[in-house]
Automatic annotation (TrEMBL):
This is Zona pellucida sperm-binding protein 3. Component of the zona pellucida, an extracellular matrix surrounding oocytes which mediates sperm binding, induction of the acrosome reaction and prevents post-fertilization polyspermy. The zona pellucida is composed of 3 to 4 glycoproteins, ZP1, ZP2, ZP3, and ZP4. ZP3 is essential for sperm binding and zona matrix formation. Proteolytically cleaved before the transmembrane segment to yield the secreted ectodomain incorporated in the zona pellucida. One of its GO terms (cellular component) is plasma membrane. Residues 1-208 form the ZP domain. It comes from Rissa tridactyla (Black-legged kittiwake). The gene is Zp3_2. GO terms for biological process: binding of sperm to zona pellucida; egg coat formation; positive regulation of acrosome reaction. GO terms for molecular function: acrosin binding; structural constituent of egg coat. It is found in: Zona pellucida; Cell membrane. Gene3D superfamilies: Zona pellucida, ZP-C domain, Zona pellucida, ZP-N domain.
């Protein structure tokens, strides 16, 4: 048998050999030997779906619309993380429970990271004054401030979700009671090991060390060096 691949087909070729022999003690035959070539052609490309499997991508008809379209969200949650918080008002001394999510549709499994978060008094993230909560590609630097418990929640419940807490605060010398928090979210393939550019690191005051939600401790070294 012989196997061949073309741009559109898988082709299997074989030969069926026929060699007649006289039945019993008969000394004559009425047919000739023959070799019959057989080819089976199978299309290489097709639109299929299966209910019993979870394909990497959605069926072909929706692939174009789903490809590279990721829906990110950042929500204030209740203290037990069970549902979205109805009020966005906090007292100093309370803790903000922030949950970042990505809805990835038919993509390969993804791991979500919060690259940076900044607090401002206006919707514009580059306005002044501004205070960095997360920076350096996933270092929760607010957790290093005195008298804070700000940290990422570890372990994750899902790879496409990341939760973290930030102690409530206000800008010094400003009487306004409204603060904007803007975060930059990104994803990497879930099977890609976390690295210095794709990480979620919290500062552990007891050990005075940075610790990642997943991955090895060395990926958090830039949180300490600032580089």
């Amino acid at each position: 048998s012989f196997f061949q691949v073309t741009p559109d087909s898988l082709i299997y070729k074989t030969s069926l050999s026929y060699k007649p022999s006289p039945p019993g003690n008969v000394v004559i035959v009425r047919t000739n030997p023959a070799v019959v070539p057989i080819e089976c052609h199978y299309p290489r490309k097709s639109n299929v779906s299966g209910n019993a499997v979870r394909p990497t991508w959605a069926p072909f008809r929706s692939t174009v619309s789903a490809e590279e379209r990721l829906t990110f969200s950042l929500r204030l949650m209740t203290d037990d993380w069970s549902t979205e918080r109805l009020s966005n008002g906090f007292q100093l001394g309370e803790s903000l429970h922030l949950q970042a999510d990505v809805a990835s549709g038919g993509h390969v499994p993804l791991r979500l990271f919060v690259d940076d978060c900044v607090a401002t008094l206006s919707p514009h993230r580059n306005s002044s004054p501004r205070y960095a909560l997360i920076e350096l590609s996933g270092c929760l630097v607010d957790g290093r401030s005195e008298d804070t418990t700000s940290a990422f929640i570890s372990p994750r419940l899902r790879q496409d979700m990341l939760q973290f807490t930030v102690d409530a605060f206000k800008f010094a010398g400003d009487d306004r009671n409204l603060i904007y928090i803007t975060c930059h979210l990104k994803v990497s393939p879930a099977d890609q090991a976390p690295d210095p550019l794709n990480k979620a690191c919290s500062f552990n005051k007891a050990s005075s060390l940075w610790a990642p939600v997943e991955g090895t401790g060395d990926i958090c070294s830039c949180c300490e060096t600032g580089n």
